[in-house]
Write a structure and sequence with these properties.
By secondary structure, the protein is α+β, with helices and mostly antiparallel strands. It has two helices and two strands. It has a two-stranded antiparallel ribbon with strand order 1-2. β1 and β2 form a beta hairpin. It is flat, with a radius of gyration of 19 Å. It starts with a helix and ends in an 18-residue tail after the last strand.
């Protein structure tokens, strides 16, 4: 085994790294019977930390209010 294979990362450390850089999750699910699409679900999610240097994408800047 190499050093990389033996390296263990705690879940807290993994979440910290993901939130520091941000993660985009995308996916498509289609429920189909007899070649007829019944349900389609599209998932687009952005997971990121929000602080002074990375403002929330859901808030308008103060000058636009």
């Amino acid at each position: 085994m190499t050093v990389v294979e033996r390296r263990e990362i705690a879940l807290v450390d993994l979440l910290d790294r993901l939130l520091a850089g941000g993660v985009v999750i995308t996916g498509d699910v289609t429920l189909r019977i007899a070649d007829v699409d019944l349900v389609r679900i599209d998932l687009n999610a952005l997971i990121s930390s929000v602080n002074a240097s990375v403002p929330s994408p859901f808030e308008l800047p103060a000058k636009e209010l």
